[in-house]
Design brief:
globular; three-stranded parallel beta sheet; 24 strands; 23 helices
């Protein structure tokens, strides 16, 4: 153990647990493997003396005749003055820990578990005779996590360093994100990763073959994935070339044929003319996802850049440019059922932030990359957001309005039963029969068609679901979308001036100037002031382009105007004054007000993007917005509230950080 004194106690798991080859389990690969069997050896659970436990409870193999009553500890306990190191057997200690502390049976140690929250851990070097005490939810859950990480590294015994267990939670969370969590979220559509990526939890069709859809004009991808299908013949992969014109009717026709869509790759030919095809790794929003999502990727990129992972962030921009070029838009995610649906547009800001982080060695190459990324963003701007059906000509503002038809196929089979039931009852048939006939166009119901247009629009907005948008989203010129498009216009104007001499030869067919983009931004700002800003209430509101009136729903997305920079200083002061009173709560910023959400009941359940929930994008956009207008103290207060909420969850719930919180 002395040799470990030179090892950084807070090193990444693959470094920290690679120092003792003798402790490895032969032939163990680095993949998560846990023993979920609920039988345990009769071994140490608790004792009286920290280093010399009662012999009956400390000797391996001894049967316990009784268990001592141990007082429960809080989530975090004081550090000892001199952190210690102990050699422990992973399998034995993990089973003891789970038996005593995991009272909920979910293989985690949380504040919800009713165990005593103090464990006498037997040391392997003493044959279990000597023990050391680990106290509190936080340290016990860290012990469980560290043993799992060590097992991933092929270890069957590890040296537990007390400093690693009682590390400051903020430091531990930041370190785990930087050294472990990112790595667990990386996916790649190469031969080694395609099996995992093809797996889709939304695909419940029995015996379904994995399908890889390739753009019509990407011959290299088609060649590569046909080769992958041959090499991985046991997976029975089907490779399908998409039509040149991907229509809503075609997308509906493959509703029963779920598949993954190809993304960007580095492509070349070797000396013999053989294809060298290297798909670009990317990051997914969470462990259960295997595809690159739209607006999630922007916020992931912000974190990747903070942690120096610029290459992954750059890959994700390249994937978006590929989607625009081959699928016509940045997709909700690269699955076949998302082909008609986009998500909130962040590409200009994302590309510019990545560009600023690129190594400075090759200026011309970096500028060429930025040119390609901005060219894709301009194409998206004109072909997706500034034309029908998303552009409202009367207001000059844009709406979320995907072009898909019919019932979204990726939902659970019973998801729309409550919606379809009244229509089925009118015809005197079952819900399942009605859904089948509707899907085959044997029934035409305009009211239901409109419902699904709005349902898809809610999903395109990224705010699925919320009473702010339900049954009307495609008719709303939302504050969030138009703030994002204003930011596109300002970003493009600034980028053209700073990097391209004030003009840009867009591949869409004409030259664009910085002056034109500034004029577009000013026009949008004036339209937002006319239709979205409410001086009396001091907030921005969504505008219904059909009813020609403002929505009355108070949403924290009003703060996005500060992120985009489209509010005047006077509007900003009013917005901050009103918005803080309405949206700032103990845990951060809440999505909307309780009054706007309305009463909740069994027939009107809560929606996850409404009160009382808070989400990371809303927090981050507000922080940047407050800084933009000089409200630094407010930004710091917002950030502290949210980071405290995250850290508390990390401490109390086994190192888990969920996607949203009841704030």
């Amino acid at each position: 153990m002395d040799a470990r004194k030179s090892v950084d106690v807070h090193a990444p798991p693959d470094e920290y647990y690679s120092e003792s080859p003798a402790l490895r389990t032969p032939g163990v690969h680095r993949s998560r493997s846990r023993n979920y069997q609920r039988t345990y050896p009769k071994y140490v659970h608790a004792g009286d003396d920290e280093n010399n436990g009662d012999e009956e409870e400390s000797v391996p193999g001894k049967t316990m005749s009784h268990r001592r009553s141990v007082r429960r500890r809080a989530s975090i306990d004081d550090k000892t003055s001199h952190p210690r190191r102990f050699l422990v057997d992973i399998d034995i200690v993990e089973q003891i820990l789970l038996e005593q502390e995991d009272t909920s049976g979910d293989f985690q140690i949380t504040v919800a578990d009713s165990g005593p929250k103090v464990l006498k851990v037997p040391t392997a070097s003493s044959g279990g005779f000597r023990t050391f005490e680990v106290r509190g939810t936080y340290m016990l859950s860290n012990l469980l996590q560290e043993m799992a990480l060590a097992r991933d590294c092929g270890m069957n015994q590890i040296v537990i360093d007390e400093e690693r267990l009682n590390e400051n939670p903020v430091n531990r969370l930041s370190r785990m994100i930087r050294t472990t969590f990112w790595n667990g979220l990386v996916r790649c559509m190469d031969e080694s990763g395609i099996a995992a990526i093809c797996a889709d939890p939304k695909n419940t069709k029995a015996g379904a073959r994995p399908i890889i859809y390739v753009p019509f004009d990407d011959a290299d991808a088609f060649e590569y994935y046909r080769g992958v299908a041959r090499d991985l013949h046991d997976l029975h992969i089907k490779v399908v070339r998409l039509p040149r014109n991907i229509t809503p009717q075609y997308v509906k026709s493959i509703n029963d044929e779920f598949g993954i869509l190809t993304l960007a790759a580095e492509v070349s030919r070797d000396a013999g003319g053989r294809l060298v095809y290297q798909p670009l790794p990317f990051v997914v929003p969470g462990g259960r996802f295997n595809e690159q999502y739209g607006w999630d990727s922007y916020f992931e990129a912000l974190g990747l850049l903070v942690d120096g992972r610029w290459q992954l962030a750059k890959n994700m921009v390249d994937n978006f440019a590929y989607e625009i070029r081959h699928y016509g838009k940045i997709l909700n995610a690269n699955r076949s059922y998302y082909l008609t649906r986009s998500q909130p547009p962040f590409l200009t800001d994302m590309a510019l932030k990545v560009y600023e982080a690129l190594p400075a060695g090759d200026i011309e190459r970096n500028r060429a990359w930025l040119r390609a990324a901005l060219d894709a963003a301009i194409t998206e701007y004109f072909n997706v957001w500034m034309c029908a059906p998303r552009l409202d000509e009367h207001t000059g503002l844009s709406c979320y309005h995907p072009t898909g038809i019919g019932m979204p196929p990726e939902t659970e089979s019973t998801h729309f039963d409550h919606t379809v039931q009244p229509f089925a009852d009118r015809l005197g048939i079952s819900v399942d029969m009605y859904k089948g006939m509707y899907a085959r166009d044997e029934i035409h119901e305009p009211e239901l068609d409109e419902y699904f247009v709005h349902d898809r629009a809610v999903r395109e907005s990224g705010h699925d679901t919320s009473y702010r948008l339900e049954r009307r989203c495609a008719n709303l010129a939302t504050v969030d979308l138009n703030c994002l498009l204003y930011k596109y216009e300002v970003d493009l104007a600034d980028a053209l001036d700073e990097h391209f001499g004030g003009k840009f030869a867009w591949t869409g067919g004409r030259e664009l100037t910085a002056a034109e983009w500034r004029m577009r931004a000013e026009t949008r700002r004036q339209n937002m002031n006319k239709y979205l800003w409410n001086e009396r209430k001091g907030l921005y509101f969504d505008y219904d382009v059909v009813l020609r009136e403002q929505s009355v729903y108070e949403s924290v997305t009003a703060f996005w105007a500060l992120w985009a920079g489209c509010a005047t200083p006077a509007q900003a002061r009013r917005l901050v004054d009103v918005g803080c009173r309405k949206f700032e709560v103990r845990g951060g910023l809440v999505s909307g007000t309780e009054e706007s959400r309305g009463r909740i009941s069994l027939l009107r359940p809560n929606r996850q993007w409404d009160f009382p929930f808070g989400w990371p994008p809303h927090q981050i956009m507000a922080w940047y917005g407050m800084y933009n207008y000089g409200f630094v103290d407010v930004a710091r207060r917002f950030a502290y509230r949210w980071l405290f909420t995250i850290t508390q969850a990390f401490v109390d719930f086994n190192g888990v950080v969920p996607e949203k919180f009841d704030v």
